[in-house]
Write a structure and sequence with these properties.
By secondary structure, the chain is mainly alpha-helical. The chain is 86% helix and 0% strand. The protein has a single domain, classed as Multidrug efflux transporter AcrB transmembrane domain (Multidrug efflux transporter AcrB transmembrane fold), CATH 1.20.1640.
Length: 175
Amino acid sequence: MFGLALLLVYLVLAGQYESWLAPISILLAAPLSLVGPVLVLNGLGIDNNLYVQIGLILLIALSAKNAILIVEVARELRAAGKPIIDSAIEAARARFRPILMTSFAFILGVAPLVVATGAGASARKSIGITVFSGMIASTCLAVLFVPSFFVILQRFEEWRAARKTKREVTSTLPG
């Protein structure tokens, strides 16, 4: 399921950005969101059950959403002619507050699941702890690492495009 979720997100983003490389900087945010649940669930001794797995799939989507906010603005700034690094830094700075607001609204929204009691509390706690810890990790790490991923992949994409253009120009020269 995790592989299919990542593949679906990748294909949708590849179509949206009309690029095979741009979605990779977004998908690299997904493993960052798994750091929190792995540490917390192992620390608390909670088994990897169905509810944990549902929470992990949810985290893939939510971490992709945060990364999309940064990459979308960075791509627009780059298309406007800004340098790659400046585009990434400005995008992270511009989208920092919206990412924090949406992430903390979600984190506070699932807080009751983390402290659930009564019948079915173990299921609610499993999914609650998973998404709670995952969103904290994703929010903290994505704001730091997604701009770096964007810079690396954008440089590579532009290098490939320049190399391809150079090859096409040299092949059309009389010779």
